[in-house]
Structures are given as structure tokens and as C-alpha cells.
User: Fold these one by one.
Assistant:
Number 1:
Amino acid sequence: MWFLSFWIFPLMSAFTWLGMLIAMLVTWEVEGHPHYASFNANQRIAYISDIGAQGLKPLFIAGCVVTTIFLDLSFASERWLRHTGRLARNTTKSEKVLSGFAMVFAVAGTCGLILLSIFDTLHHPHLHDGFLLLFIAGYVISAIFICAEYQRLGMHFRQHRVLRISFWIKLVFIIIEVILAIAFAVCTFDKKPNVGAVLEWTIAIIFTFWVLSFFIDLLPAVRTRHHGGGEGVPQVEMGRGTNGPRTLKHDGADDRPYENGITNGGFKNTAPNGRIEHAGVGYSSPVDTRIATPARNF
């Protein structure tokens, strides 16, 4: 059932964030571009935080909290689905370490976003700026670790186009957001608030597309929801035979015969007479020790 799958988390996060931004911008427009108390002397365009420090502060806080909750659920779901094999598994310890760092910095970005909405720019300008930096840096660094993880996953699972697509989307996000963040900081220190406000709105809108990239990551889990333990997700078999590591091909064939005791998904060849055990049930196979799980994922 599609409506109960994990892909709904990034959609809820992205739509909440984008809806909040649209509501705040439309409100400022309808009110006739008011000059808020938090404005600088020559400022004409409102920052997101300027509008969020006024009557829409409850909306600002609620929107930031809901956005981060569903985004963190997306992170946790992606980690759990890879651990259980419903998405392409992490094959090395370095991939798991990169994933862990990505989650840590994502939590830091979460804290920054929630706290900057609470400590508004009107009453707590210095705290607000500090939490804004934590928000941007946290999620950008998290995206860097995710890209590094996906680059390594893509080397093991070349048949999964999803990994390559998601990698490039996140890499483009990193490049654009870093450039815009530097320009935003320069405008802030050079006292160019109107250009800085436009850049802040642009950074926030692009953040929406980064959140949506997790929809691409989680969507393949729909195909494996009834295949526990990673069945249907081709894995890389790292045997210790004479010819080194073996990679299962997309059509289910292996490069060479299996060794006794090597497990591939639900298949395990342990019997010397060529019997194959699958899910605890033995049966005879006419093909001696060359059975592999068909690839059903993309």
C-alpha cells in the first residue's frame, strides 16, 4: 500500500516547509510590505526571520518543528531500510561511519532550525544568527557525508540508478547552497540587507528540493516491502576464493561457482551433494552450485 510507505516522510517535510514559506511571503505581500521593527535602516525586503518574528511566529515555529521531525524520520527510515536490506545494504564499515556522521550533523541542523525560530531576530539577534549558521552548516555537512556514502554504494551497486541520481541531486545542492551561503554572509557583513534577503529566500526554497531528494532514496523500498532480509536487493558477495571478491550480476548469474557456506540472500549452499537450502527448506537443483537470487530492484 503506497500511502503507508516511508516515502511519505520527505514529502510531508518538504510540503510543510514550502507551505510555510509561501504563507509567510504572501502575508507580507498582502500587508503591503510593512517595515518591521527588526529591519535595518535601508532595508526594504523582509527576511524570513523578520516575518517569523512578528505575528506569524507560531506558524514559523510550528513549520520548522514539523519540517525537521519528518526530515529526521526520513533519515532514520533510510538508515533502517539499509540495515534490514530493503534498500541496498552498506557493504563496508566506512559507509556506515559516513551514514552515522550524516545523521549527527542532520540532528545539529535540526536543532539550529528549531532554535532560530524560537529565538527570533527581533529579541535575540545574536542567538538567532548563531542558530542560523548551525542550521545551514549542519545540513550542508550532512549532505557531504551522504554524498560520500552514496558514491561508495554506487561503486558496489552499479545497477541501481537511484543511487547515482540521488548522489548528483545532493551534490548539486551542496555546490549551490555553499555558493549562496557565502554570498549571503558577504551581503550581511557589507550591509546589503535587500540582496541578503533575496539570497535567504533562495536558500530556503532550494532546501525544499534537497528534502525531496529523500523521496527518491526511499521509493525503492516499496518494491521490497514483502521481501524481508534484503531479498530482491542484489548484494555484493565478498568471498575469499582464489579469484577474489565476486559480484552478482544483474541477471542473477555469478562470475564463478559458489563456495560451500557462502550465503546469497535467501540461498545457501552447504551440502556437498549440490542440494540448495532456502529459508530452511532443502531442495535439489539441476544446476550445481550456481544459483543466484534474481535482481528485482532498480
Note: The radius of gyration is 24 Å.
Number 2:
Amino acid sequence: MAVSLAGRTAIVTGAGSGINLSFAHLLLSKRCNVIFADLALRPEAQELVSSHSSASQSPAKAVFQKTDVTDWQQLERMFHVADKEFGGVDVVCPGAGVYEPAWSSFWNPPGHPPSTDSPNSSHYRILDINLTHPLRATQLALSHFLSPRTKSRHPASLHNPKSIIHISSIAAQVTPLPFPLYNASKYALSGFVRSLAPLEARLGVRVTAVAPGVIRTPLWTEDAEKKRLIVEGADEWVEAEEVARVMGALVEEAEVVVEGVGAGEGEKRRVRVEGGMILEVAAKGRVRVVEQFGDPGPSGAGNTVGRMGVAEEEVFEKLGGGRWGRQ
């Protein structure tokens, strides 16, 4: 399935910053309209939306829709906005996510500051954002793809393909002790993507994912507790633009260039893009297929955090006090 994004419409959650902003920028450059679904826009995102606010300014239009992805009604609303503004949607990226923040972390149990999760709520907010939201957004996308709400749109088919692109992580395979809820959310998301692989051949709906390494985004660079774990000069960043480029390829290309298994060290090969595919994105634009069975796992530049052991020792310090988790 090779498709042109020109004239199509995408919904991107979390488009106010990071990888999702870079992906939204890429889509707009390909003349694809974009709904920026986020709680707020960083200045660079606001500038991008403002410069694409009308057809006279740009061949593609950007619309900001304030969205709390943990609220299912607000998720539905972003699809209604796409119907109203553009007649429907063709690409959905439920990319909003958080990296085990202190306010919703396994090692800060509900009811124990700085956690803001309530022991009476029966849920972790990080899982609402990282897992439940992309699952629900995928349900809504399939509903709108298969049963368009406007007469100008035709249902998804092999001749009218649609795409859902998720953001997993190398944390689905490399699972550091300090971030278990994040690891679990990405492990589950990768399994979810693989389970929807048959949709492309039968219905024309391609569901894929990227699995980035350590990304130079605000989730790392503006969180002092996370950034201190990076060893500058030894650990390397993966750039958000590199991830966005691979996401674009998964949405619109029939083949992608990858390295790793089946190609030899440093060698490249072309592989067919298909539903259920997960591509790891490491530093310097290195892309690797994450195989379902027999995968060697992430390695190399962009996949290392040199001081992770510091955070692990801090976890054991918390557990050693004799009162961890007690009300």
C-alpha cells in the first residue's frame, strides 16, 4: 500500500510537542491537514498551527483542538472536529504519552506524594494516557474509517486505505527497573499493534508503530530527574525528526529501508511495510524491524542510558525503609 498524503487529514494527539509535533510538521509539509489534539501548544507548535491556519497561507491546514486524552468524550470530539473541518479523517496517531512521571509512578504508590493517583480511583493515570487512550482512539478511528460520518467520504478499503500509527518504545524490550508502568504500557501497545495486523489485507487499514530509543524531546530534556541519567558524550540522542520520518514512511510507503537482522551489521535492505510492523528508530537515523519472535533486542547508539543504575539504586533505597506502600 503506497499512498499520497496530499489532500488527506490526520489527527495527532500530543502534537503540541516532541515526536508528535515533528510528525505533524512532516504531515503538513506533505500537504496533509492536521488536527493538533493536545492540552496546550508549545510556542513552536503554536507558530506552526498559526502558519497553517487557512488555505491562503498553506496548501494544508492545521487546527488545534484542546484535548485531554484520558477523557473519552474529548477523544470523540477530535473526530467530530475532523468531520466538520475536513469531512473526515484518513490517518490517526494517538501519540500522546508520558515517561513514568513522579505523579503517576509505580514507585510512588497512590496516595503517597508526589503521586497524584488516588487509592480510591482504581487506575493509574500514566496507563490512562499511554495505553487506554491509544486503544480507545484506535477504536474510534476504525469506526470512522469503516463508517464515515460525512457523505463526502468513502469507507476504508484496499482502494481507499487508511492508517493508524502508534508510538511504542525500546522499553517494550529493554525494561529498566525505575520505570515499570511505562515499560508495561509500551509492551502492551506493541502487542496490540501486532494483533491488528490482519486489518490491512482485509479492510485496507494499516496499523503500525515505531519504537524509538532515547529521544531528544521535553520528556527527557526538561525533566531534571530523567536528564541526569544521560551521560553526555557516551549516550546519544535520537532526534524527533528522525522518528517522524519513519512514521511517515509507515503511513505512506510500500517499502522502507532498514538495518539489522537479515541485512548484516551496518548493511541495509528494503522490506515491505505491512500491518503490525514495528520499527525501532535509533540514533543517526538507524532503523530496524522489531521481530515478533527471535528478536535480538535494541543495541547501539541512541538506545543507552549510562546512569540508569543510579535510578535503580534509588528505587532500592525507597524499598528499604520498611514502610514503602503503607497508608
Note: Strands lie at 9-13, 33-38, 62-66, 91-94, 162-167, 205-212, 255-260, 264-272, 278-281, 287-289.
Number 3:
Amino acid sequence: MASIFSNRDSRKSDGALFARTARYAIEKNHGQFTLQLAQSRILIGLYYFAAGDATQAWDYGGAGVRVTTGLKMNLEQAIGQMEHDTPLDYGFNRQALEECYRRTFWCAFITDRFNGYATGLLCILQKEDIFLRLPCDDHRYEQQLQTEAPHFDNGIIDKRLVNPLAHATKGFMAYLITLATIWNDMLAEAYRLKHQASEDYAEAYERRYQKTYSRLESWQRELPPRYRLNVENTIVSVHDGNASMFSSMHCLYHTTGMILNRRVRHTCLPAASIDRNVRKALHHAQQLLSMIQTFHEMPHPEHSSTSHPHQELSGPVLISTPFNGYGIMNVIDITSATGSLDAASFRDTLECWNSALAVLKQVARFWDSAKRQKRTVKKRVQAIVSCVLARGQGKLAWIAGTPLETPFNALDLDLFYSHPSSSLLKTGPNRILAAALGMKADESQILFLEDEDLRRSSLDGGGMGAMHDLRFTVPT
């Protein structure tokens, strides 16, 4: 994995060599379940994910999960009953080694949750089978102290073991684990609801919707002040070297909100529910864009021992975790579905998009998935600007007809792109999209961007560079 983040010219060949060596060691230890085998399989799976080999990543990641469950790392009782003659690997004392086992399992858990993103691929680990403490804070781990972190809330365990007020003993990773659980449950239920009978869909969806939002709000309440999303904490995360973890956690929170509100069979829901979903999805998108802009506009601290090794950049790379790329693509997907063509408003939108592209460019230095996302997002921004320059004169707004992504291969579950046709402006969700942005327009004042418009782009630079030449007026 270190080769992925290296700035050496030989990093690709080095990575391939190290991966071959790791595969050889893994194969020689096949069937001999150890802590090291679990960690090796998880790490090489992550390496293949970074390199763009999704099949290998899925295979090795799943194999790592099987080792953790084979060693019963999902059970606190099993970890606590390790034989006293068990070798104390890595120079740990027994308390630190037990925490290392826990953290290895939770790494497998998070990998299992994120490997498939929103593809509908099933996770191996079920939360109901996990009876384990959450990771403790890093200081306690580094000092090799006994953990006092609460148990993971799997919905079954004795609630007296789940203490939501034990912030002092819960590490940053613990909050990410809880949120990743909500994320995966939301995706799994969205996938299952795809097959729900139409007459039962509205009630089932509303039940799932309220339950998920209740869990998200509970998660927000339990966050200690230092982990909450605001400008001050964002700055602190950069100077402490935690920007990637901090941004990933809040990116996951807002992406969960975006997808929960967006991926819905709108033909089965009342107009009030559709209106609510559109507004909340846009709210989460704007909140995430705001965070991204904060990171992008923040003065970079001077290079130090905690700075990123890529010295050719103007400052240290702040964001290097792959989920940020996925979240950014979803933000652009939602905010490019429709928008105002008021000149000032459109310029502000493009500024936000270009900040997102700049951060996505950072992530794309390391992760193949982000490279593809960057190309997709850049092409979308260029296509919209190109169409606005060519045909935007006298228009109040645009509406796009093609999403950047279609999870579950089901366009009918996309609230923002379900009705690209102009003839449905007054009756479909597009009417509500326009209303949510405060636009009162008839079809003649809307710039409709169909598939062909979004596939081509005549702008080489794209983004804000093209906006300096923008000269058009909109009716008042």
C-alpha cells in the first residue's frame, strides 16, 4: 500500500513487485488462520482496489473477512479468552494485542461495507453477528492500556454494554464504524425495496426512511464537539494530519443522506414526500460542497513531518481517502441535474464544482476509482458550460437528462433523473426540482440537456475558465 502513496518514479513497478511477494506469502500460509494473514489479505485487497482491479480487491478483501471470522475476531469473549501462551506479536502487551485484533476485524468490516459502494453487491459480515467492543481512542492504544470502549450496538446486545456517552474512550474509527453500518443498511434496504410490490412500496419506504434518519440524527448527537463539522474543526483536522479521516466521515454522512433521499421509486410516493426528498438531498449536497470548498480554499500548512510526501504539490495533499471521490461524484450528479441560469448564481455553482474537481484531483493521485470519477465529473461540467454558452441565452434554468451513475441498474429509482423529457416538466419530479430552487418557468425558459448534449463537450478547459467569456442575460 505504501507504493500507492509514494512519489517515486518506480512506485508502480515497486507496488507490483511487493504485491507478488505478498501473494506468495499468503498462498504459502493458506488455511493457517493468523492475525498476520488477515491483515495481509485486507491490505493486498486494498492495494488492488487502489490499482483499479475490483475483482481482485473483492476476492482478497472477502478472504480477509473469512480469516477474521475464522479467528472469531467478531466476538469479544473469544478475544478476551486468548490462550496466555499466545505469542505477543509486534511487541505488544496483552491489552494492546487484544485491541489490535479488534481493529483488524473493524478494518475488515469497513472494507466489506465500502468495496461494493452502491453496486448492490452483498456484504459478508452481518451486524447482528458482531459482539465486540468498538476501537478505543488512539492514545489509550498507543499506551497499551486496557480498553473501556463500549460494545458495538448490533440491535441485539444488552444495552447496558452500549454506552453512547463513553466519548473519552471511543476512537475516531468507532464513529466511522457506526456510520458505515447505517450506510450499508440503507443501501441494502434500497436494493431490496427495488423488488417491493408497488402497492406496498410507499409504506415500506417511509418506514425505512424515518428509521434511517433517526439513526443519523442519533449519530450526530453522539459526536463529541471536536469531531463535528465546522470550520474550526476542519482547520484542526488539517493541522493534526486527520483531514482525510475527518472529511471521509462527514462525506459518508452527507452521501448517506443524498442517496436515501434520491434513490426512490417516485411513482409510488405522494408529492409531499417527493418534495421533502428533493429538498433534503439538495441540502446534504450543499453541505458537502461547503465542506469541500473549505478544504480547497484553506491555506495549506507548511510541510512538516505530518505533511504528505508529494512535494511537487503547492502544499500537502489534504484528502487522500477514496470515499471522498464517490461522495463528490454524487454531489455533482445531484447539483448538475438542474439549476438556475442567473449569471451570478451559475458562477457560484461553477466555483463549487471547480473546488470539488480540485479535491477530486487530489484523491485521483492514489485511487483508480477517483481517476474515473474525475473524468466523469469533468466531462459533465464541461458539457453543461458548453451548452449554456451555446444555447443558454434567455433561459432561466437547465435540466439534465442523464445521471452520472445508475446504482442497481434502475433509473426508475432516481428521483433527480427520472423524467428528462420536457413534456413532463409540469407533472413529474422536474416540476418539484424547479420549485425547490425557487424557479418559476415554463418549458420555453428551460434549457433541456439530453443524452447527446451531455456526451459531448467542445470546451477544452471547462469549468470557470470558460465562464470569463460568458455573456448572456436572463429574463426577470
Note: The longest strand covers residues 397-400.
Number 4:
Amino acid sequence: MELPQIGKHCQLSGCNSLDFLPIACPLCKHTFCGDHRLPLAHDCSQWSRINNQLTQCNVCQHLVKASESTNLSPEEALDKHKASKCSLFLYPPNESMKTVSQNCAVRGCHNIDPRIGPVHCNGCDQDFCLTHRYPSSHQCSLLHENEQKKIDKKLMAQEKLAKTFHQHKSAAAISTTAKVKKVKTNTKTGGMIELMKMKSQAKNVGASVPITSRIYLYVRKPNFKEPKNSLLPLYLDKKNTIGKSLDLIADICNVTNKNNTLPASHPERLELYKFPEMTILDKSDILENTLQNLDIIWLERQGNITIS
């Protein structure tokens, strides 16, 4: 048996099942599995001595017993126990036990297991049940803050790159912009004829890609000299990220790629640009969410592109 040292066996005769969260009976002090944890479920030997004084809360499943000084009946003790959000008259009494709130921070949820307790979220500093413990399941404020930080970081990076491009203007890149023409597609056929022609010419980038997962793109090589050789028809896996596609395209174009060692603002860093908008493609985006068949993209170094 795997991990025999973890958990304990139920001490009820005829069960003996291994439970990873065993529960000790507060009356007879024996250990039982979850199914036999209650005194009546394991024929507790001490139950007859104290059963007239104990009741079980149907909310928290704990045993409830009023202290002798209160002179409360079991029913009155149970009512006060529930009114205190299941914190009073717990049996056996444990002064050191931390009071557990029965209310999950999600409105209308009361599913916190008193045997396990709440799960504290450090993002919004609130307590939740096991079902709502994940930030996405309780709409944690930290998610919105992280999303805003990501947007701000992206805007700062774009602004920094724009300044870098402006400082490294390339006359050669400006002069070649006019040479690349947009691929003409027949609007009536949705570019199907052009796509069929391209499929017979396109090269595979990376590992074998199933037909249903392919996206066909025209790629402009860096520093091309002859317009007729400027656009390279390729197909990639549409589930790839832009960053992974950049690395694959650089390999097939025999372009030196040192992006992993260069800082973000370095003019020698390679980027993929969508033509003719000349917008930088975010490396974390997925191809199929950003591009479509027959789109033109440029593989170029930052210092060779000028954004006006």
C-alpha cells in the first residue's frame, strides 16, 4: 500500500478503513473515519452516560453541551449555540481553539467546514470555504489589480519602444516600406483562391502541424533586397504563441536571434510586426487570436523600424 504512514485506520470493528483525516471521538477517545465519527455511528461506549446532556448541531455537526453554571436545557443550549454562529457550548470544550466563522465571504455561502476551517485569501484578506478559495471563484480584487498592472506595464513598454524606434531611424527600412505590397484577395471568394495557391507553396515551420491546426502567413525577411523574394509563405500551428512563432520564423529565415540575452529596448532585438499597421505583436498572444490566413507579418529588428 502506498504511503501507509499517513492517516489512521478506523477503530470500528468491521470497518478498519484507512482515513487520511481521522477524527477522534471526544467521548471514548478512539479514532474513526468520517463515516463513523459520530457517537451513534460507532456505538460509543460513553454515549449512554452523557447522551441526555448532549445534542448535535445540524449546521456545524459539532456536539453541543451547556456548562453546568448556565442551567440550560440541551435544546436551549443548542439555540444559543446556533445564535453565536456555532461558537458557544462546543463539546469537548477547548479554550485554545480558534473561533471559526461559519460564513464564507461570498454572499449567501455558509459552507465553511468547521473541521477544516476557512481558507484565507491574501489577495483580498478575507476567508472563504473550499469551493470559493480560488481568486477567480470569488472575484478577488487582486485579479483586477494584476490585470491593470499588466495593462500599465504593456503601455509603458510600448511607449519605451516607440521612443527607441524614434532614436534609431533607419533610412533603408523607410525606403523599403513602399516596396512591400499587400497581398490581393478576391473579396467575393474570401481569398480562397489565394489561400489554395499559398498552401501549395508554404513551408512548414517547426514540428509537423495537423491541417486543421495550420495558419498560413506571409513573412517578410529582415533586410530583404529583392521585392520578389521579400515575402515567404509559411504555415505554423495556430495554437502557438507569438513569442514561440518568432523563434521558429527566425530559425527558418537563418536570422540570428539573441532576444534571450538582449534588454527590451535594445535595437537588435527581433520583433514581429503586423503589416500594414506596423503594430508590434504581443509575444504572449496566441496566433489564432491575433492573425488570420494570408496576413503579412514582418520579422525585423527594433532599430530598423520607425513608428511615426
Note: The chain is about 25% helix and 15% strand.
